[in-house]
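hey so i finally got around to running the thing on that chain from the lab meeting. sorry it took forever, my laptop kept dying and i had to restart like 3 times. anyway pasting the input first so we r on the same page abt which one it is
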Amino acid sequence: MKLKKIIVSISAFFMLESAGINMYAQTGSEIFLFDLQSNKAKLTLSNPKNITNHTGYDNQPSFHSEKSLIYYSSFNDDGRSDIKIFNYKTGETTNLTKTSEREYSPTLTPDKKFISCIIQRDNNAQDLGKYPVDGGQPTVIIDNLIVGYHAWIDDTRLLLFVLGEPQTLRLYDTKAKTDKILAEKIGRSLHAIPDQNAMSFVHKVSDSEWIIKRFDKSTGVITDIATTLSGREDLCWTPDGKIIMSDGSKIYWLDPAQEKKWIEIPMQAHDKIKGITRLAINKKGNQLAVVVAE
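ok and heres what got predicted. didnt touch it at all, straight out
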């Protein structure tokens, strides 16, 4: 291996750590599933269920858009992460992958035929690939960038969180194999905005100012939406355009079309709901997956 490649791999490892994506020393976490009730003026969370109940890392939940399935990343007994599938209608958990690699951030592709994910390899290479939804060998999508997180814009374009100094938001075209830097110093939470031709991301303008921003898919124009909860970057969107975030112990919502004020969501008490980070919501908007500390 050439010296340059070794240096790049070592640098990538430390950048992953600084971005909260240390693939070798992830802290223990669980995924809880809540029933979510929503109307124009109120959201409530009830019936919390631990859907992983497994010692170690269980994280990065993502819903199938049509089926009652949640994909997530989970460490196996060897300390390697596989993609698991939880069926919240039957309560059954199965594996999508059982590999010698490490898979993270499972995401249903727009054609619903694949689960795209980060594939982290033993040599510290980090590709974006995709596995058939029914299982099988992966196809590599991107291997020339250190992709930390991703979100599909359409069948051929992606928004990427790319590791580097600084971390960058990039628009990537899978056909032309081109990418364009859109912003720097961004957060890991990338999402389509419901009923809009737009995506959202968090711009870490400074240590004290983090802003949720809107990227217009057609024009490329970036505009401000709202300020995040202090020091928080994980969020999701309800089908009717509300934003959900957590301060780590409580969960809040904000309607950016109305007064931009964060409102606490009443949540059924549970002694294990602490250290909340990532959030994911199903397409119907009646199920919320919440990652908590183990």
